[in-house]
Amino acid sequence: MHKLSFSYINHVLISFRIVGGRIDHSHHFNNAHRALVDTLAFEDAVITALGMTRTDDTLMVVTSDHSHVFAFGGYPKRGNPIF
């Protein structure tokens, strides 16, 4: 699920925002598979937005407010699935 936000001035669209917050939620629960699935869904949303705009008059910025890492603690055996 993505949050959508639109900004208008004089009925002209000046900004369009897609927020992929579920990626962050998945990281907080150490769910690598869900984070990856949500990242791919976010990529699809960006690709859709690219198809709805013109590159000659549109600046698209894709960014993140922070990131997470996954750590493997202890001494896991080789071959353990990361998902």
From TrEMBL:
Enzyme class at the top of the EC tree: hydrolase
Positions contributing to Zn(2+) binding: 24, 28, 65-66
CC cofactor: Zn(2+)
InterPro entries cross-referenced by the UniProt entry: Alkaline_phosphatase (IPR001952), Alkaline_phosphatase_core_sf (IPR017850)
GO molecular function, one term: metal ion binding
Enzyme Commission designation: 3.1.3.1
Cofactor-binding details, from the entry: Binds 2 Zn(2+) ions.
Keywords, ordered alphabetically: Metal-binding, Phosphoprotein, Zinc
Protein name per UniProt: alkaline phosphatase
